[in-house]
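Regression test case RT-17, inverse folding.

Input:
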């Protein structure tokens, strides 16, 4: 019964934090600009790394040959790609975390404030990008060289790494720790918040599934109208297609807000305004140093 009650509390806390994350985003929709900028930058970077394949196709080689060339990159090339893409993603994620932290502390929190603060954390961000890229190359190597078994092992290790580093970005921007210290802090906080971490991952996955249903339904409706109302049908289908990446951006932003709120409470015992104090104090506070 005690275990069941503990998990009931964890589910209730997770739902409360997710609701608060939505409220914070609803009050300041400009926060979405940071993940949008991150996604656009990553697409441009990925396209730039794909240029050799495209040039190969244009000069007579097949696209399959070009893609095979990318697949057979040296590990140095793969590492560079990971460092650059991880670095960009972490930079914008750090800027978002800064904005959320400042808002929760009652301070001014503009997008420019977040970007400036993230830029001042460049050494920590670069260090974390290097560590993440190293782990990414190791997991990719295991996946490539060991077939199905290696793929499964890489997935399990990747999941464990994701969970263990769940709160690294808030630690980087709030405490200015190096990547190895940030991982240690994240693991320590994980001992207090692991239920919320795992439930958040499941919760955001379920949210995407349920919130994606209207988009899928609209697309089907549009496809059914294509024969009789082609222009309207195409418009509905285009809007439905655009709905999915927008939904992903919203949930990604909410996930980062969730991380920051959870970090703030687990590390300092500070309860964000609007939260149920008794709900949170029931578990975390006794473990908070």
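Golden output:
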């Amino acid at each position: 019964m005690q275990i069941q009650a503990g998990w009931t509390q964890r589910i209730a806390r997770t739902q409360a934090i997710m609701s608060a994350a939505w409220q914070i985003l609803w009050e300041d929709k400009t926060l979405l600009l940071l993940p949008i900028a991150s996604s656009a930058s990553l697409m441009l970077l990925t396209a730039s790394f794909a240029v050799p394949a495209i040039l190969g196709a244009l000069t007579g080689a097949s696209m399959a040959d070009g893609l095979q060339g990318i697949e057979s990159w040296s590990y140095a090339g793969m590492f560079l790609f990971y460092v650059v893409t991880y670095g960009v993603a972490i930079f914008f994620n750090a800027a978002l975390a800064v904005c959320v932290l400042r808002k929760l502390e009652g301070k001014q929190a503009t997008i420019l404030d977040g970007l400036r603060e993230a830029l001042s954390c460049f050494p920590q961000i670069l260090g974390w990008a290097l560590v993440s890229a190293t782990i990414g190359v190791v997991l990719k190597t295991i996946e490539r060289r060991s077939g199905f078994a290696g793929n499964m092992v890489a997935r399990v290790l990747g999941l464990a790494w994701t969970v263990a580093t769940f709160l690294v970005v808030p630690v980087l921007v709030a405490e200015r720790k190096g990547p190895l210290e940030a991982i240690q802090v994240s693991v320590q906080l994980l001992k207090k918040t692991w239920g919320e971490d795992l439930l958040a991952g499941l919760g955001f996955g379920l949210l995407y599934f349920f919130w994606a249903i209207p988009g899928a339904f609209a697309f089907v409706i549009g496809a059914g109208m294509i024969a009789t109302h082609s222009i309207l049908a195409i418009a509905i289908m285009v809007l439905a297609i655009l709905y999915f990446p927008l939904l992903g951006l919203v949930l990604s932003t909410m996930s980062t807000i969730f991380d920051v709120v959870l970090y703030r409470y687990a590390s300092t015992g500070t309860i964000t305004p609007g939260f149920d104090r008794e709900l949170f104090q029931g578990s975390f506070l006794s473990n908070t140093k």
